[in-house]
Amino acid sequence: MTTTEAANTAPSRLVRSFGRLAYLDPDRPVVTLFSGGLDSSYPLLRLRRMGLREVHAVSVDLGEDESGPYKRLVAEALGARLHLLDRRAEFADRFVAPAIAAQAVYLGIHPVSSTLSRPLIAETAVRLARSLGAQAVLHTANRSQNTPARAQRSAGTPGVRGRLLDDPERHEVPEEMYAWSRPTAAPGAIELLTVTVENGRPVALDGARLPLTELIELLNRRVGAYGLGRYSGLEHLDHGEKVLEIREMPAAWLLLSTYRHIER
Which of 34, 52, 82, 227 is deepest in the core (most CB within 10 A)? Predict the structure, then answer.
């Protein structure tokens, strides 16, 4: 085995804290997963202050990303090179299509969505890192964003007690927060849609054969115009914690319902 082969097969050290960033070689590239938000922007600032000369921020477009110009502005301001990588077709073919056939629904509440994306996002980041000869792939995802803040506030103000608890089943979401499922169809309007399924895979809409990515985009607009495909429920986190999450998936709602109807 050559030295290069040994280096490629040797287990890498995990960077579990900002303190371990000090072990990074400032002359070798680093790849970071980047959403444009505060939690993924802060590491770019830290890496720049540490003097790393080549930082690559990677953002993977799986079909919902329209914030490319903003992300580029933030990344470049923090001294990183942004890679906007379109993986929509691969995501649809490798992950979405099997999920439709599997009727992948989380605890009977909502279609599995973000969970499907994580393997492809990680795989894409690793591909980029290998092509660049990067020494590390960094991300800022964690098990819970709430626990540290709650613990610190409780320690600082031990006398604070709440008398009423919010009912997680009763909540309102401002209509402007939705992108696809704002009702725009005329009241009482009826629209007939025909979805063709072959071997468990949607292949055509109203007789027109389309790539799965385009079919989903069309369904999100047409089905969403009737306010369909909205989901709200409690997401289960580690240590018994739960968080209320709101989703809109008009295309997923229709495709899963269609497939279930065929099965019956």
Answer: 34
Query: pTM, whole model, 2 decimals?
Result: 0.74
Rg value, the chain, Cα:
22
Same domain, 130 and 226: no
Tell me if 204 sits within 8 A of 196, measured CB to CB: yes
Domain annotation covers residue 63: yes
Considering the domain architecture, whether residues 20 and 134 belong to the same structural domain is answered as: yes
In a domain, 109, yes or no: no
Q: Are 41 and 74 in contact (CB under 8 A)?
A: yes
pLDDT in tens, 50-96: 999 999 999 999 987 678 889 999 999 999 999 999 999 999 999 99
Q: What would the DSSP string read from start to end of 92-138?
A: IIIIIHHHHHTT-EETTTEE--HHHHHHHHHHHHHHHHHHHT-SEEE
What interhelical angle do 250-263 and 212-224 show, nearest 10? 100
Q: What is the CATH number of the domain that holds 214?
A: 3.90.1260.10
Residue 184: inside a domain:
yes
